[in-house]
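Progress against Task 2.4 (sequence-to-structure conversion) is shown through the following example record, which the project officer requested during the mid-term review.
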Amino acid sequence: MWDPIAFSLGPLHVHWYGIMYLVAFAQFLALGRVRIKQAHIAAEGWKVDDLDDMLFYGVLGVVVGGRLGEVFLYNFSYYFANPLEIFAVWKGGMSFHGGFIGVLIAMTLWSRKRGRKLMNVMDFIAPLVPLGYAAGRFGNFINHELPGRAADPSLPWAMMWPGIDYPVHPSPLYQTLVDGILLFIILWLYARKPRPFMAVSGMFSLLYGCARCFTEFFRVPDYTVYFAGLPITAGQLWSIPMIILGIVLLVIAYRNPGKKPVQA
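Structure tokens generated for the chain above:
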């Protein structure tokens, strides 16, 4: 396993986890510049300046929302007992679902500032999200977070995990590949052509929710709830609303496939 600390400058330790977040934000800008050049996106008046401004709001949404999501959705009892740990973001512990809500709030503020429809903004940024998510999950892997469930020792990629004395599935790598890279490929190809208003956002929400529900089967859950006798992990619990939201948005989008409303 990698050392979570990339390098040190005297008493200052720079963690790979933080570097992965910088990679995530950098790829947002890089992919955003490519997306702006797509004819149907350029026709909506998107500019490079929008990316820089949006990123500032997005970073706040990801960091604040992701951390508060980890606190309130996943590990409230721990952080209630150790409130100062809430600020120790370099140790890891960022919830995607909290970050998703944080970005929604941040983009609501940005869209009002720029006079755009919120869902037009979300349609634009949705294909830029999965690779950033992949970078974050790879950071979890380097940080020795989110261990997988017990794996058959004969599985070629089964790994020994710090603090666990049996081989496990490398669940952060599964989520990097499936929830992140695979989702990016599908969504990027889908969004290359003009789609009905809200369809790209709906597709992202649906695909992420489904992918996360799948990869959760290989990860030690933060906690488990039971519905009709069936175990549902915390990650699946918070992903089910995303699946429902995605279906609703896609149904609405394809029932009204006319011109996208861009301005608020």
